[in-house]
Amino acid sequence: MIPSFEALVPLASFVDQSPSFYGLVVLALVVTGMLLFKRPAIDQQTVFSLVPWMVAGSALFVFANVNGYPDQLVPVVSAKGAYLSVYVLLGLAWVAMLETSVKPETEQLLPDYLGVMGLGVATVLVAFTLLHAGALPTDRLIWPVGLTVGAAVFSSVAVFLLGSVVIDVLAYASKLSVLVVFSHTLDAVARIAGMEVFQSINHSTLSWYITQFTAMTTTATPGSEAFILSWSLTYLVLKVGFAVFAVLLLAGYARDYPIRSSIGFGAVAAIGLTSAVTNLLLIVIGGAL
Amino acid sequence: MSNQTQTEATHKPTPSGMKTVFAYLAGLMLGILLILPTLEDSLFSMMIGLRLDATGRSLLFGLLMMFVVSMGLFTLFQIFIFLDR
Question: What pTM was estimated for this model as a whole?
Fold first, then answer.
């Protein structure tokens, strides 16, 4: 029997896309080339400036799933396309700002302006996503706020404790460490709440494997309180563990290689934060992807 | 790191209020650009005189959208340049 294309190519779902998606990938590569050519200054502040753009990417992903885009545009606004589209806009805006700024002081402030611009993009996308949902029950608004505050407090305490053991964490990358732990903690708790409280979120690959593992290793019936507690705790510990591992790894480089370390922190934070924002928006609008 | 270098590293100019507002406006425009295609049907249903098929409508809409947004962004960045000098 001839193996299927998907079996031969592990990333088949990624390569099996429409021409418009390929066009977007090419555009993203061109933008990356332009950014590499312009060599913008990247520091820890830059990573924080990119946070609104991460939120915008997730909001576009959710918005595209609940609104009707023309068929030709669907591949560039849903799934990976949403994040790539926002990345292209971010890159173009960044290059345009680098081109237009003349004074050295302005160049120092570009990350601030870039962050504010990202905030504008995120405002429109989040607002229209919420508008689409219509009437919003109070508990659907209280939960995301509570989860965000809880994750922020937890990550601050966790990084403080971590920094008391590994000095590099607090000395060179305290804020970025909090951001990384916060994003993955929020992602985990938002997914657990979305699945078990609101039934409005589906499994991620990791959470699906954990539930399968829990079903095999415990006697608890799937759906029972003990089962939910068991898989939720395992998932949370794994996600936080991954974030802490990444922080320990990257903080060691923060002093000698600040740019590479900042890019690494940004990438790890983006993985958690984009997923977390998607989950929170799905809780609020009560939609499932 | 010497004290002087530390002072230089921590000194950062304050962002301009006007530029911040323009950056936010540019962001709002980009956001609107992203949601604009979902309004395609409702916009074109208002244009009764145009007899175009779906592909023609999408092409025309795309061109219009690119024109409007690029002109808007061009104007905003011109203001940005003006404020910089």
Answer: 0.83
